[in-house]
Amino acid sequence: VGAAVRSLGSRLSRTKHIPKGDLTTNLKRCLNTFDITMIGVGHMIGAGIFVTTGEVMRNLAGPSTTISYIISGLAALLSALCYAEFGARYPKAGSAYTYAYVGCGEIWAFIIGWNIILEHVLSAAAVGRTFAGYVDDLAHSAVRNWTVDHVRPWPWNTVSIPEPSANVSHQICVDAAESGAEQKSLIGYYPDFISVAIIMGSALFVGLGSKAASNFNSVFSLANLLVIVFVVGYGITFAHFQYWEHFFPCGVNGVLAGASKCFFAYIGFDGLATAGEEAKDPTKMIPKATYYSMAIVTACYVLMSATLSLMRPYYELPASSVYSKVFSDLNAPTWVPLVISIGALLGILTSLIGALFSLPRSVYAMAEDGLIFGWWARVNPWTKTPLNATITFTILAAIIAMTFDLDALVDFLSIGTILAYTIVAAALILLRYRPHPVEDNPSVMDQGGQIRRNIPFLYEKMAGMKPGNSILYSLVVMMIAFTGIGVLLSTQFVSNPIGIVLMVIFVLISIACVLFIDAHQQNSMKLDYKVFLVPYLPSASLLINILMMTQLTVNTWIR
């Protein structure tokens, strides 16, 4: 029995070896840096900039939403940098799944792989429902009313259908999802056929091939960026700086709560890594595209939120279609809201294409490794894409979009995404301190994972330990301490004297773990791109991700 348990444990913890510089793939390498950058921009800049900005400004942060976007952009950048190094290390299609397989083992790769697949399925479904909601709002709820009258609501939904969103009074400094003003339902109020149609239509573009999908995405993304430039340039002519007199209406807590919500507007940079097997030179293009896309998206979010806060007081913002309605209220020409609405729909569409582009490639990577059905790893000989995976999981996304409520989808999406970011940051630390063959003599391992010789009292005591084991143990302890900090903050137990003592203990343990890891030697593996300030930067990413996971509601974890 013991031997069987050990055998099972070794299989679950075994890691995948990918030779350095291995560019073999069944997919077609046809994407350049511009293509990959536009995939990231399109995936990130879609629904968030036209939907999330208004919600955060109206309910949580006011004009300081601009600061919230800067903070969340920096937090997202920490995770993006970790992804960029892995993209340079292992130019494969699996994104965080492949990185977890290489760094943490098969069981973690399996868990993260399914999390990523779920993330992209739910992302596609959520964006599809956002698109449908925006169309219905522009049509003054005509689509919704027709569906309710002719198709009828879902029979198993016992929650009454809410009235169409209007610019009614609302609580300031309270997240709409937590205000309790409206009873939420897991199931949508009625079947959403528009979301099904737009998801299926977008999948056709993705199924035509990587270059064709990239071209469609690039055209739509550039059109969306032009609309953003127009909104900022024209909107600033309506600026009234007195609206910034109360820049922090909800204080620091409002800024941080806004940053937590804005962080999910940056979801999508991990989609860049799924293009690793279709990039012409992935070891250089993936890191560059990551930097470029994050810079473009952050600038757009900051400028758009700043412009909106100067055009209208935050407490007078409408509940939906914020930019279009604000320009209408300011007596802008009638074609201006139309242009903005078209830009918003194009932006949401590019976000959907980005999710559907990443989804089958994540499935393909797991299927190719034998962790799920190999049928999904088959590459179509004409399009050079995993067409079986595209068809299967697009249908799944369409069914979910037709059935589930948007808020429920966002709740599902949040945990899996942050968990994937957390594992990637942890895997990066483990790989940096894992022994690597010496370049001139591959049969000899370097000093990676061993205590530095200039710290004699530690070097002597730990000389017999297997290199890398102490890194793993300290990393686990550090993540437990980070979780303790997050729980104390989320439950507000830190205001209790015992909570203060526990907080000090957890902080000291965290600092000690980071310094202990830094006392080890990193391996000598040479890469075209490496994250700087390891282990400090990935540890900061771990802390932020764990803090955000502890801020999620109990219902979200149960779901």
Short structural description:
It holds the Pfam family AA_permease_2. The protein has 559 residues and is mainly α. It is 64% helix and 0% strand.
Class based on secondary structure composition and strand pairing: mainly alpha
What is the tally of beta strands?
Answer: 0
Q: Note the run of SSEs as H and E.
A: HHHHHHHHHHHHHHHHHHHH
Strand content: under 5%
Termini separation (Å)? Answer: 36 Å
Low-confidence stretches: none
Q: Specify the number of helices.
A: 20
What's the rounded overall pLDDT mean?
82
CA radius of gyration is 24 Å
- Major sheet: none
Q: Shape, please? A: globular
Explain how this protein is built.
- By secondary structure, the chain is an all-alpha fold.
- It is built from 20 helices and no strands.
- It has helices at residues 2-13, 33-45, 47-61, 65-89, 96-103, 106-138, 142-150, 193-207, 210-235, 251-263, 282-311, 322-329, 335-368, 387-403, 406-432, 456-461, 469-491, 497-518, 536-551, 554-558.
- Helix 2 runs parallel beside helix 11 and helix 12 (322-329) packs antiparallel against helix 13.
- The longest helix has 34 residues, at 335-368.
- The chain starts with a helix and ends with a helix.
- The model has no long low-confidence stretch (mean pLDDT 82).
- It holds the Pfam family AA_permease_2.
- It is a multi-pass membrane protein.
- Keywords: Membrane, Transmembrane, Transmembrane helix, Transport.
- It comes from Pristionchus mayeri.
- It is found in: Membrane.
